[in-house]
Amino acid sequence: MKKTAAIIGGGVIGGGWAARFLLNGWDVNISDPDPEAKRKISEVLANARRSLPGLSDVETPAEGKLVFAETIAEAVHNADWVQESVPERLDIKHTILAEIQAHCRANAVIGSSTSGFKPSELQQGASDPRQIIVCHPFNPVYLLPLVEVVGGENAALETIENATGILDSLGMKPLVIKKEIDAHIADRFLEAVWREGLWLINDGIATTQEIDDAIRFGFGIRWAQMGLFETYRVAGGEAGMEHFIAQFGPCLSWPWTKLMDVPELTDELVKKIASQSDAQSGRHSIRELERIRDDNLVAMMRALKGQNWGAGALLNKYDSEIKAAEPAEIDNAKPIQTVARSIPVDWVDYNGHMNESRYLQNFCDATDRFMEIIGCDADYIANGGSYFTAETHIRHLSETHSAARTYTTTQCLSGEGKKMHLFHRMFHADGSLLATGEHMLIHVDLATRKASSPGTVVARKLEKIATLHAFLPTPEGTGRAVEQGR
Amino acid sequence: MKKTAAIIGGGVIGGGWAARFLLNGWDVNISDPDPEAKRKISEVLANARRSLPGLSDVETPAEGKLVFAETIAEAVHNADWVQESVPERLDIKHTILAEIQAHCRANAVIGSSTSGFKPSELQQGASDPRQIIVCHPFNPVYLLPLVEVVGGENAALETIENATGILDSLGMKPLVIKKEIDAHIADRFLEAVWREGLWLINDGIATTQEIDDAIRFGFGIRWAQMGLFETYRVAGGEAGMEHFIAQFGPCLSWPWTKLMDVPELTDELVKKIASQSDAQSGRHSIRELERIRDDNLVAMMRALKGQNWGAGALLNKYDSEIKAAEPAEIDNAKPIQTVARSIPVDWVDYNGHMNESRYLQNFCDATDRFMEIIGCDADYIANGGSYFTAETHIRHLSETHSAARTYTTTQCLSGEGKKMHLFHRMFHADGSLLATGEHMLIHVDLATRKASSPGTVVARKLEKIATLHAFLPTPEGTGRAVEQGR
Question: From the candidates A166, A483, A486, which should be mutated to test the interface with B, based on the most B CB atoms within 10 A?
Answer without folding.
Answer: A483
